[in-house]
Amino acid sequence: MAAATASPTTLQVDVAIFGGGIAGLWLLGRLRQAGYRAILLESNGLGGVQTLASQGIIHGGTKYALTGKLTGSSQAIKAMPGIWRDCLAGHGEIDLRHVRALSDHQFLWSTAKLVSRMAGFFAGKVMESRVREVKGTDRPEAFQNPAFRGAVYRLDEPVLDVASLVGELSRQFGDAAYAVTWPDGLQFEHARLIRILGDDGVWRTLETRQTVFAAGAGNEPLLQRLGREGPAMQKRPLHMVMLKGALPPLYAHCLGASANPRLTVTSYPLGDGEILWYLGGDVAEQGVGRSRDEQVTAAKHELGRLLPWVDLNSVDWGTLEVDRAEPRQPDGRRPDCSFMEDSDGLAVVWPTKLAFAPRLAGEIMTLLSGRGVQPASEHSPLSLGLAPAQLAQPPWEKEQLWI
Ligand SMILES: Cc1cc2nc3c(=O)[nH]c(=O)nc-3n(C[C@H](O)[C@H](O)[C@H](O)COP(=O)(O)OP(=O)(O)OC[C@H]3O[C@@H](n4cnc5c(N)ncnc54)[C@H](O)[C@@H]3O)c2cc1C
Known about the structure:
- The protein is built from 13 helices and 18 strands.
- By secondary structure, it is α/β, with parallel strands linked by helices.
- It has a single domain (about 1-400), classed as FAD/NAD(P)-binding domain (3-Layer(bba) Sandwich), CATH 3.50.50.
- Strands 1, 2, 8, 9, 10, 11, 17 and 18 form an eight-stranded mixed beta sheet that branches. An eight-stranded mixed beta sheet has the order 5-6-4-13-14-15-12-16, with helices on both faces.
- Residues about 1-5 have low confidence and may be disordered.
- The structure holds flavin-adenine dinucleotide.
- Flavin-adenine dinucleotide binds next to helix 2, strand 2, helix 3, strand 12 and strand 16.
């Protein structure tokens, strides 16, 4: 009798996904809908690290064309807003009708100094279909102050409430998402034979036809555990800033002199009627290495220069240090596209952008059918007897140290 309980439970699946950020969750959804036996293993909480820390912008590449020409990034990402919009409308590859879009558009604004350069650029052929100038009351409240001397452009790319996105994906597909303990609760015989320790102290065995590492920054240690040297990863750190109070909602990039926005502001309505501003762009890139207080001071100065009429006297401030995890680039810069590399039944993926998750899932589906891994015809239960993976929290809910 003792032997029966001590012997590990074994489960055979088509695909095991490590990591429940957007890459893993989207892929799980696509696979389950196609009839594959797929499970997801998550060591922290669904939505995990970068996904819930992201600004939720479904880019179509305009942000990357700010120097005046379309870069590799902007070409590859062009199709993404359309794919997401179809999903949000309920006729795409995943039904996202219950996901909250915070805004269906964003704004780009230029300071007075850059107005003429930007006007010429946006009038150009490449951009004219994507961006149009807005004036007067069509501008967001933050740019209706008479002291504002710049120009404002509207860009029809949505901004999503990422917590609601993760919540919805988890609601639809989370029954196949389990908690694992890293590093002690996971062992690999090889990439497709995996042992997992349950919280009851019993090891389970998982046999897969395809394993996918979609664990963000966790891909590197997973690869090391397997004894694999690549693909190599890079991390690009950010020091994001959060402020909450009586702020106007704003979804906007401030155009600077480089291809990167000087400041990107997204907003999140908090339950108590307050609005949270989440600040990225150069402010977050250049804030790496600053203390929390220094970073808040730098952000105050930047907002004071760019939006001096916005009253910041009674807002609370917080910051978040977080790494973007990506395939290593020769120059350490931002990769142009999502990444997938498969070797011996192990695919390693980094979406590099939330927006690219559908593209990545599509690549894995193609890989599976290319390898002859077809959806199973019979559907025995997927239960491994492991604890279900829980949802992680967005950074502003985790923040304890509001200044
Ligand atoms: C501050 C910030 C803002 C961003 N803003 C945008 C934006 O506006 N628009 C956009 O398109 N992109 C944006 N991005 C990029 C985007 O967020 C990421 O490319 C994307 O979320 C990465 O998703 P992921 O699933 O690969 O990784 P993650 O979201 O990091 O998820 C990885 C998951 O794997 C889990 N994990 C780790 N190790 C293990 C293990 N051993 N076993 C099991 N699970 C494990 C983690 O707990 C985590 O849940 C932003 C990124 C950052 C950091």
